[in-house]
Amino acid sequence: MEIFHISAECYPVAKVGGLADVVGALPKYQSKAGHLSRVVIPGYDTKFKKENTFTNVHSGSVKLGNFNFSYTILKEAADNLGYELYLVEIPELFDRPEVYGYDDDIERFLSFQIATLDWIIERETIPTIINCHDHHTGLIPFMMSNCYKYEKLRNTASMITIHNGLYQGQFGFDKMHYLPEFDLAHANLLEWDNCINSLAVGVKCAWKVSTVSPNYLNEINLSANGLESLFNMVRDKSIGILNGIDTEVWDPAHDKMLEKNYSVADYEIGKKLNKEILCELFKLVATKPLFCFIGRLLAEKGGDLLPQASALALSENYKEINILILGSGNSEIENQLNSLSLDYKGNYNTFIGYNEELAHLIYAGADFLLMPSRVEPCGLNQMYSLRYGTVPIVRRTGGLQDTVIDYGDGGNGICHDQASVGDICYSIQRAISLYNDKAHLKNVIKIGMETDHSWERVCQEYIEVYNSII
Ligand code: ADP
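Above: the input record for the complex with adenosine-5'-diphosphate. Below: its predicted structure, written as tokens.
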């Protein structure tokens, strides 16, 4: 089967969050399973692009109303990632360091989608399936079935995978003329709440809709930033597939970013050495339980609860625990978290920013990982922490509910129900009790480390879904 994954992110080329990890891994395992899996993302100005060799496979231009953008399709020459990677170079729009957050994001991702389809129809073969990811590629299923120039793709199956339904890529109908010509009788397919909503368009027009966990599929029928009724309407063509993790990249036995590699057989010594380095780096006390958070500092992740929860947990248990936060996002949350460093010096620290290597070291060196998320479509952090022998403390929501079971029920982590300071602190208290009950802790860690979240298994589920629609 020839599969095209079209996305805004792909690890290790351009990463903001979990979308990159999934798009960087799933195609590798699809290729290993014998399929021709390709990834197409915009050609941002990233380290990966500078350090790898690319060949020019196609060029053209995209007309967006009065604007004209030249584009080039570059293929990573050596297939180093285990699948064919293509970058859509549009220098005026993507030759910038960040993936998102520019005033012209609508123009950027619309040009990217049009250039990608323009190129695909010029190729000798027509793909079996086009798998779009999130709203940045949500207009593709509409264009495939409605724009005159993509007539060739009418019978090509399309699927949209929703990694996060909160972000929807809305824009006004004043920009509708950016789209290649189509029968205006179908313009209603673009509309949701009086504007063009890229995610809603993808959900309406794709042959199949998938979410990144089964529980998130249930949740978006109740709460999806205004798209609930749409998700209800398309329930029959929707499926929740739990993400996997790339067990080659995330492997404590071979991870080059760790101080000491380890496996389930010798995790105690391995984790101890990684924790010592981490505590030395952040001036914490390695003999105390270490609670960490990694992620975007936003309300969605419960980031706003962290300053108060940390202060309370540290004052109640002062000197009994360490807390280390790695993340960036809302500047008010960042400032509040930073200001705690003075009050709880020696037991608390932060790294405000993005640091892939540090994230790996934290998964290995921490004892507990905090995930107090309000919304978590799948969540990868808890799966990485399980694999690295770190006990996740999660709010029961989305994919966290699908992957973490409370140790009181014989499971692999600690769970609470409310996104509240009280619930987080109560879970921290339970974690301290578990930490002091070494035999029980060992059992919980072993269950977590032995859980199979590999893509090998999950990749097959994607193939079965593709087969059901082609
Ligand atoms: P998201 O909603 O952000 O996509 P996920 O749990 O699906 O959440 O994936 C988050 C990914 O981003 C993980 O690989 C995590 O390690 C990584 N990550 C998030 N924030 C940071 C950071 N500040 N530094 C390094 N890695 C980070």
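Notes for the reader.
The pocket of adenosine-5'-diphosphate is lined by residues 17-19, 21, 294-296, 326-328, 354-356, 359, 378-381 (CB under 6 Å).
DSSP finds 17 helices and 18 strands in the chain.
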